[in-house]
Automatic annotation (TrEMBL), chain B:
It comes from Chryseobacterium rhizosphaerae. It comes from the Bacteria. Residues 114-128 form the HTH cro/C1-type domain. This is HTH cro/C1-type domain-containing protein. PROSITE patterns: HTH_CROC1.
Length: 331, 134
């Protein structure tokens, strides 16, 4: 059985699943729209939480937050279920397919057979859609893939019951109610306000203040922990910035696309200008990643390289702060 | 980023025959999407991370060969796990798993406990027990 489902490749898994599932329900919203309304732009620094032997950085909010927030602001209802027993989880999924419901799943990426080796980590908040079952295999629309794939029952069970941080526990979700008239203007405004509030939050762990904390820590790492560890931490920062589904520079570009669309919906030309501003900031994040990559290549480079990286990141934080202040005023 | 500036470097994506989508701007500064085969800066970060993993695996192998740690440590590194992830896969407390890292304790483990580890690593109990790191 194969449901009528359109696969669209997207830049980020969560927006992608949301956008593809809603399109299937007849609601056409672009990936950037979901991302902006769901306040996907974020920054958090968790120095005490070690991920992959480096401190935790993230350019995204908690997994699931984007779709939940976007749905709430648009008046869409999503049903979410978790199962303690893997067999129940499979039965519930098959029942959904029989009722013609393409279903979103939270999965771990470590055992995703179709991913390249370098992307297989114990990261459990990836999202994909199951849109059918043929010859004992589940048909998979993974939004970061160019093409649709399939997984056997055993393979799917493995990724749905991955362990470690944020275990999916068979988590499946699908929209059950989409209102006929959607107040897009109001939803966009709410999304923008929430993003500004988070990024300008007066706490050191999130938003612009967290970026500054990381920036100031770079020379300290070099002094206390040496070049090898510092380079690894910086590598983690790039991976979090640019890896599939976690993009920082990439996220700024999605936000730019959102503001461009929002400018039309709200008839607000200032948003179009701000779209260009965040695009320029996204370019700086990418330049920053290139600078870090250069540090790897010349391992014996002079010690003030870390001071320079720190300065670059502080500069980006200043630009972002100014950007969110303008954005808050613009709506 | 302008569409024409989007890097098309060779990367790890090639092994899975995939590309990634990015949001880029066209000649009129309007947003559109484009596919990329990869980017050197990102590849450098991924390679560094893989290198670190290979180093850890090699170190663990030598430690097993020198009988300073149990084979569990080697397979944990091989599966890119840390103590927390492994403990949740086998359903034991972290301190207990840590105890099983000691070769002397490892030899006293029951078949049931060994089976849990072997399943978590996707290998047989014999493969786990007989791994000597040599």
């Amino acid at each position: 059985m194969k449901l009528n489902f359109e696969h669209h490749q997207t830049a980020h898994c969560e927006n992608g699943v949301a956008s593809n599932l809603l399109l299937n329900k007849g609601l056409k919203l672009s990936e950037p729209m979901i991302f902006g309304i769901g306040s996907g732009l974020f920054f958090v620094y968790l120095p005490f939480l070690k991920v992959n032997f480096a401190p935790g950085f993230s350019y995204r909010p908690m997994p699931g937050a984007i779709f939940s927030k976007a749905a709430k602001r648009l008046g869409i209802k999503i049903k979410r279920e978790k199962f303690s027993n893997p067999q129940d989880a499979q039965k519930a999924l098959e029942k959904n397919l029989e009722q013609n419901i393409p279903t979103g799943l939270q999965v771990g990426v470590f055992n995703l057979t179709y991913f390249p080796e370098e992307y297989k980590f114990h990261f459990n908040a990836h999202n994909l859609v199951v849109y059918g079952k043929e010859d004992g295999k589940f048909l998979i629309s993974d939004p970061v893939m160019d093409y649709v794939t399939s997984l056997s029952e055993a393979e799917l069970e493995k990724v749905r019951y991955a362990k470690g941080a944020l275990p999916p526990k068979g988590h499946m979700y699908y929209p059950i109610y989409v209102p006929e008239n959607i107040n897009l203007e109001e939803a966009i405004k709410k999304g923008i306000k929430d993003t500004c509030k988070n990024m300008l939050a007066p706490v050191p762990l999130i938003g612009v203040k967290a970026m500054r904390w990381v920036a100031k820590s770079i020379p300290k790492w070099a002094e206390k922990k040496g070049t090898k560890v510092t380079n690894h931490y910086l590598g983690q920062l790039i991976r979090m910035q640019e890896e599939i589904g976690t993009g920082g520079g990439g996220f700024r570009f999605i936000y730019g696309a959102f503001l461009q669309e929002a400018a039309v919906v709200l008839k607000n030309d200032q948003l179009k200008e701000l779209s260009q501003e965040i695009t320029a900031i996204g370019d700086l994040w990418r330049d920053f990643a290139v600078d870090i990559a250069r540090v790897y290549k010349n391992r014996n480079s002079k010690s003030n390289i870390y001071n320079e990286l720190s300065k670059t990141m502080l500069h980006i934080a200043d630009l972002e702060e100014a950007f969110y202040k303008k954005l808050r005023k613009a709506i | 980023m302008k569409k024409q500036d989007l890097p098309q470097d060779e990367s790890n994506l090639k092994s899975a025959n995939m590309t990634e989508v990015l949001y880029v701007t066209d000649e009129n500064n309007n947003y559109t999407t484009a596919n990329s085969t990869g980017w050197d800066a990102k590849k450098a970060a991924l390679d560094e991370s893989m290198e670190l993993i290979y180093e850890r695996i090699e170190e663990a192998r030598q430690n097993v060969a020198n009988n300073t740690v149990s084979p569990i440590v080697y397979f944990m590194e091989l599966n890119k796990m840390d103590l927390g992830v492994l403990a949740s896969y086998v359903g034991m407390w972290q301190w207990r798993v840590k105890r099983h890292f000691k070769p002397r304790i490892f030899t006293t483990l029951s078949e049931t406990a060994l089976k849990k580890y072997a399943d978590a690593f996707g290998i047989s109990v014999d493969e786990l027990k007989n791994f000597d790191g040599k």
